[in-house]
Design goal:
The complex is a heterotetramer, with two copies of chain A (about 350 residues) and two copies of chain B (about 375 residues).
Chain A lengths: L6 H17 L2 H8 L7 H9 L18 H13 L6 H15 L1 H13 L4 E4 L6 E2 L6 E6 L2 E5 L4 E7 L6 E7 L9 H40 L1 E2 L2 E2 L4 H29 L5 H27 L10 H12 L5 H12 L14
Parallel strand pairs in A: 1-3
Antiparallel strand pairs in A: 2-6, 3-4, 5-6, 7-8
Helix pairs in contact in A: 1-4, 4-5, 4-7, 4-8, 5-6, 5-7, 7-8, 7-9, 7-10, 8-9, 9-10, 9-11
Chain B lengths: L6 H17 L11 H16 L18 H13 L8 H14 L2 H12 L5 E4 L15 E5 L2 E12 L6 E7 L10 E7 L5 E6 L8 E12 L3 E2 L5 H13 L6 H17 L1 H4 L3 H29 L9 H22 L18 H8 L9 H12 L5
Helix pairs in contact in B: 1-3, 3-7, 4-5, 4-6, 7-9, 7-10, 9-10, 10-11, 10-12
């Protein structure tokens, strides 16, 4: 039993955090909202240089051969800066899926994923919209139990605007006559694994988003004065933030356990992921609610940065399965006859 | 106790219902946070006024109908039921209008009230200042009396709809040595006066729902003062009293949201049923909205019989703002992956105005005195807890 | 449209409140816990002298001929003092039921109810236990769609102790061979009316209980000092109480409307009562939760009076239909096709 | 990261499981808030000690097993799983024991630890005083050093299980001129010393779960002092650290409650399904209890590798106490009309210990620093908000 991250994992997290916090400033995010694609090839190139695009690509294909446990802390940091680039999908969802699909497709694309030459995006039927389909060099798409491997030109995109201007969401239509690459039971297994990975990515980002909203709020309420005192010194303001800190603190271990379950392909991965996503997204939603409240009218403006993180938190809560979908996973396990519950059952 | 409407009240309901059926635009207007939408809403105010439905609680002599509170509640029920446009001039009609009637000179009433009623003059509010927030007594903008002019300098902020409004009513410090509530004066300012700069503040949806207003030696005639010099606090309190009262948050608004939420839930029950929180929240929305309505009627009847609104009115703001936020949060949960989509997005089927409402509901617990301040007031003034 | 109480009704409330607050002190309640019956014939006699035992008895039988609207404010005051005597059941539930049953039974017992010579208790199948069966001179009991009119000796009682030592709860068994007095559709209608009245009584008492817990807490936190300040001056303590005040404030009108609906025998009475009971009991439960919290360790003791009111609030929430039962009533109405909801529907 | 138990850990689990199967009393003991129940629990402590299962985290030399935190968690899981009796001497074993090991002289260790382990000495805590509450620095009870005796005067309160305990460990002011944290001394007091009066305080269920203790010129030998004269604060902080830490609220306790809640819900689903809040709360109970377990394991592993508990440990108290209260509130909702019945009541079928647990759960957010104080600590020390 060792529920800790290694020195290396923590050091990697530190260096990625430093990089992201320096590079992905709110100003840069705002600039991205105005561009055509909303995505920044130069930044992607920097990720490639840091090894991030190939982090989960096997070493024989030029990557670092790491897994979900290695990546989960980095995904948290992506959340902390509200990263718009599709790194989490690429590294945590699409590349492992491509590996699972294997064969020529994997042999051809994994090296390109590693070098960052290709952005790979995965999506399943459960996703109403496909985020970043417009910049996918390879789109791995599940529809009605069939998987398609699509390059630009093999599918059409219709954008639907999100309240989060950083998100680029598309309804995707596969070109008629395109042959699926996987079908049947194996396709379903891939879909289940893909959903777990997608939801895990949301959960990890939600942790980072919640932390960022706490940090913004603590800073704002220390500076802002009312009735002659910093508003952060009022007990009601403190307790709003403390309540977020409590929920966030207890959402972390579930997310890390879910990463482990996903990395190990454990039988309980769907439950672990459902728990992680419910706890983390709830913490992030509470962070949003209490942060806007302690920001007062400033929090309601476009100018203050809070809304950047708040809107992403709202969106992630409903992406890769909304609360109802994940509660369904939980209910299916805990209300079943002979469910293993209670003391001692957690790691069985 | 007699919980049924009189024949007269029923007739009134029938009259406004049929007028609205005939007059409410078939296409929803654009939001008044855009210039075009603002103009559309201004025209709607004129239409309402032509039907004498614009300011039903005003006296008949001023173009109103002299409605009592129960009739006003009925009017609001029909208005929301008909999905009639939001009132772009509510600052004028519900806040400044009654204040003018109480404190204005005859000349001021004649000058401002009809233009307000017709939608010609749309009014913005100038209370908050940077660094003052809910603490109105901390106002620092000045108005210096020179001859028959006030020379205004300073800054106001969070002025709703001020980007396209015509006038501002606000509070300025006329005695530079005064502190807190003393030495403030209530002044009406045309927003096209030289020296005024209006800077739009984009809100959560990116639209300029409010503005900062900068005053640089702005000259305003002394005849634009409402009440006496230095007596602004008393005048403003009357306005704030109205604001915190019933007029701006009629139960009908929340009951219609609750009704739509029940509809949304039923239309999406297959997916929503997986989250028991949703069903619970939908039922609670109905119960709370109904309770808000019942409590409002009870208060209205008490006031009609000479009762006074007491400290318990501070509970009002907390109750409706949390209800509104909860209802919209529930709608977001029901909509799931569609919740984040803008109404015009191709995939936004069934989303309607829920996202806009959700964003707007975020402001409820914040503006006009945050809910934290309201809780302090309840504890100290209603329950008598120590300061 | 007149949603106010008359001068007379408010004056009656004032005088009953004065009487109850003076007479039903916590000391007297505590003394009652130790007695055999837990009930006080002298106090009942005082109620009779005040006209309370006959308040709902028709004038021709010696009562005041009043209805649920007249009584609801008095029931609130009964809650405020945590009255243990079965006045609410007698006056609000059993006497109107007896009237509805009519005939010789009513002619015989209504005059005795009016003078206070008889305590009449009503209970339906939905009540797991019958409160105060042991002191009922006449027990009107519904079982499986049949109504029985039972005097002491015609039924047996087995007591189950409640956490609230003031409550005397009994499982009642009807003597074999006892003939029902009403059956069939009419019995069901009586049961529905009886449930409405019983739940209304709980709701009204819950309002009083919540107010009492607020009053106790405000007083305690004004006197009790910590870190050199009255704890009532801390914002967290104030906000706990303010939150109760908000929920209580908005539970009042629904209870008064429910009283009106019951008095008028309106078709929407079950919904009105369900709403009233849910809102009022929720307010009282929140009052209990927040009051014990602001009392700190003192609130956890037997010696401080808070628990007297807290336990009664807990119990009433599950009496005459628990939250699930009343939510079922609400759901049946609002989720029905063609339900009249929204603006303007409240008083239709 | 490796989330599986080692063979050694599994063997440890198997060992305690089979011992408990053989030794846990078939009939539940009476509550230790009664004299007879207290005696039963004291005997159970002796039984545990005979099996060397009484204080598994103590060193082997002191009769323990030198368990690390993971083994302790495994022990607790099996202990709660077996429904073994509550620990009447947890004050001694988890709070005073480790403090004695750190601050006690060899003589004190020999004198107190074995008797504590065997259940011969049951310990009460003497922190709170009337008017001091959570503010330990406000202690006013005095211990005046005269020769080799301390003369103790004053009053302690909220002393759990003190009615039948043998000893009290507490803090007294030995320097009468000192203020706040200075001048306090940690002293061990036999409760049968002349001059001590123990007044039971009945709790919500009417039983004397705690007591007030009055000291009237109570003479205690100076050898009963733990640590130096005037150094009590540092000693007590070690104890308080343990108290706030893991040892007293093992995840197993809440996971078993959550498991029983799921069972209760399933057994009553027909009626419970009418209240969607219940299903939501049952799922939440499971999720929160699991999260508490996961977080505890994560912290334990971090501590095992030399990490330190930081300010985030203040979140612990709030999380488990609210979880416990919510789980029991949900059970009360499920039980409906049965919820208020005492366990022995004829009609209390299926009620079991839920009502007792509900009452007990009321104390969670209050004792050992109210949750309001914990929230202040989180905001100020963990988040760095202004005081």
């Amino acid at each position: 039993m060792d529920f800790t991250f290694s020195e290396d994992q923590l050091l990697f997290q530190d260096s990625v955090r430093d990089f992201l916090v320096n590079e992905i400033t709110p100003e840069r995010l705002r600039a991205g909202w105005e561009t055509d694609t909303g995505r920044d090839p130069a930044l992607w190139q920097q990720f490639a240089e840091l090894g991030l695009t190939g982090i989960t690509v096997p070493e024989e294909h030029g990557g670092l051969g790491m897994d979900a446990v290695d990546f989960v802390l980095l995904a948290q940091e992506c959340g902390y800066v509200a990263l718009a680039e599709p790194l989490v999908n690429h590294a945590l969802v699409a590349v492992p899926l491509l590996q699972d699909i294997g064969g020529e497709l994997a042999a051809r694309w994994l090296p390109l994923a590693a070098t960052g030459e290709a952005r790979i995006i995965a999506a399943v039927e459960q996703n109403l919209m496909v985020e970043d389909a417009h910049v996918a060099d390879l789109l791995l798409l599940e529809r009605e139990g069939q998987w398609f491997a699509l390059e630009q030109g093999q599918f059409s995109c219709e954008r639907s605007e999100s309240i989060d201007p950083a998100r680029r969401l598309y309804s995707v239509t596969v070109q008629a006559g395109t042959a699926p690459i996987v079908e049947g039971a194996r396709a379903n297994a891939l879909r289940a694994a893909c959903l777990n990975r997608g939801a895990l990515g949301c959960a990890a980002q939600a942790l980072g988003l919640a932390q960022r909203m706490i940090d913004l709020s603590v800073q704002y309420t220390a500076e802002r004065k009312q009735f002659g005192k910093a508003i952060g010194s009022f007990q009601a303001v403190k307790h709003h933030m403390a309540n977020v800190a409590v929920r966030l603190e207890y959402a972390k271990a579930p997310v890390h356990r879910a990463a482990y379950a996903v990395a190990e392909d454990a039988s309980g991965a769907a439950l672990a992921v459902a728990q992680a996503k419910l706890m983390a997204c709830e913490a992030a939603n509470l962070a949003a609610k209490n942060s806007i409240q302690v920001h007062g009218a400033m929090g309601y403006t476009w100018e203050v940065d809070l809304h950047i993180f708040m809107k992403k938190a709202w969106a992630l809560a409903n992406t890769w399965g909304d609360a109802g979908w994940h509660k369904q996973q939980v209910a299916a396990v805990i209300f079943a006859d002979g469910a293993a519950l209670g003391a001692g059952a957690t790691f069985q | 106790m007699q919980l049924a409407f009189t024949e007269q009240q029923q007739a009134f309901r029938a009259e406004i219902r049929s007028w609205l059926q005939a007059n409410v635009p078939a296409q929803p207007l654009q939001t008044f946070d855009t210039e075009e939408g603002f103009q559309q809403h201004r025209e709607w105010e004129a239409t309402l006024n032509q039907g004498r439905w614009g300011m039903v609680t005003w006296p008949e002599a001023l173009g109103g109908r002299g409605c009592d509170l129960i009739e006003w509640l009925i009017f609001e029920e029909e208005y929301y039921r008909a999905r009639a446009p939001l009132r772009v001039n509510q600052n004028g009609i519900f806040l400044l209008g009654p204040t003018l009637m109480e404190y204005g000179t005859e000349e001021q009433k004649a000058r401002f009230l009809p233009a307000m009623a017709e939608g010609r003059d749309v009014w913005a509010q100038g209370w908050s200042e940077p660094g003052a927030g809910s603490d109105m007594a901390a106002i620092r903008s000045t108005a210096q009396l020179e001859g028959d002019k006030y020379i205004i300098n300073g800054q106001k902020t969070w002025s709703t709809r001020a980007v396209w409004a015509d006038w501002l009513f606000g509070m300025f410090r006329t005695d530079p040595d005064s502190e807190r509530h003393r030495g403030l004066t209530f002044i009406l300012v045309p927003l096209n006066t030289p020296g005024i700069t209006v800077r739009p503040i984009p809100q959560l949806d990116g639209l300029p729902g409010f503005a900062e207003i900068f005053f640089d030696n702005v000259e305003v005639d002394v005849s634009n003062r409402l009440g006496d010099d230095g007596a602004g606090w008393a005048v403003a309190m009357a306005t704030a009293g109205f604001e915190r009262g019933l007029m701006l948050r009629s139960p009908a608004r929340f009951q219609e949201t609750a009704r739509r939420l029940v509809e949304l839930y039923r239309a999406n029950e297959a997916s929503a049923s997986h989250d028991p929180q949703i069903r619970e929240a939908v039922m609670r929305a109905y119960l709370d909205a109904e309770s808000y309505c019942l409590s409002t009627y009870q208060t209205a009847c008490r006031l009609s019989q000479g009762g006074k609104i007491g400290a318990e009115s501070s509970t009002n703001k907390i109750f409706w703002s949390e209800l509104d936020q909860n209802m919209h949060a529930t709608a977001m949960s029901i909509l799931g992956a569609r919740a984040e989509l803008l109404a015009h997005a191709p995939a936004a089927e069934g989303v309607g105005t829920w996202l806009d409402g959700w964003l707007f509901s975020q402001s409820g617990p914040i503006y006009a005195g945050t809910n934290e301040i309201q809780r302090n007031i309840i504890a100290e003034r209603m329950l008598g807890m120590p300061r």
